[in-house]
Amino acid sequence: MKVGHRAKFKEDISTLTNGMIDTVIDAVLYITFNTVLSVGIRNMRQMEYAQYQSDVLLCTYNAQTIRRALDTLVSRKLIQRNKTPIGRNITISQEGIKRINEMIPTYKTHRPWDGYLYLISYDIPISSNTKRNLLREHLKRIGCGKLQDSLWMTPYNPTSIIDEFIEDHGIPGTILVSKLGKDGSIGDEDRKTLIKRVYGYEQLNERYERFIHGYTKLKNPSITQRSLAYHAILADDPQLPFALEPEYFLGKEAYRVFQS
Questions:
Q1: Taking the complete model, does pTM exceed 0.85, yes or no?
Q2: Is the CA virtual torsion 59, 63, 67, 69 positive or negative?
Q3: Which residues span the domain enclosing 12?
């Protein structure tokens, strides 16, 4: 495959998936996973290359490209194809499931919480701006909400995760983690009001609402389109303890619609 074509594939797929997936190989794995998970298709006779080509992620790619991607997935032991008397079975290996979990977020049905909020503050030299940005991205990735430029919050104790990150990446300066009392507050806002604002629950709920209304009305929605639409929202959902989510929040309902 020419370098220019490979770059175009990556750009197109990344755009369609909001950056969650950026290669044809991962796209094929994602489609295979969703198809097997949703409708139980395991026989390759039922899952021909034409089906991949008709999918929203791969509609512009030819059978040869898709075939190479499938062969690569087999060689990397991410999927398995076995001959049987009725055809070839396709299954996702444990390594394949691990790769899927690295690409896309997973809805957490169990969210233990110790009842505290944690504040993360840092003072990193301007000369280490790259390191500071690296820390900010890490705080976002582990579900922290930004209060101010150098002050973040999370309901999950981040001490060990942050300590490990600081050591691994050589982050200079001072980074402090403080525990807010169970009855404590920040400013004039109560906890739920603060969390709703910091984590953007209003906008997030509107997106879940559009997803629910859009996909409950469709009789035969595309498996991939539904999955991509859901995971794009879930990627921005901090998945805080259920006790801290607004009462009207539609996260659970959207998950139910996604699974149906």
A1: no
A2: negative
A3: 3-103
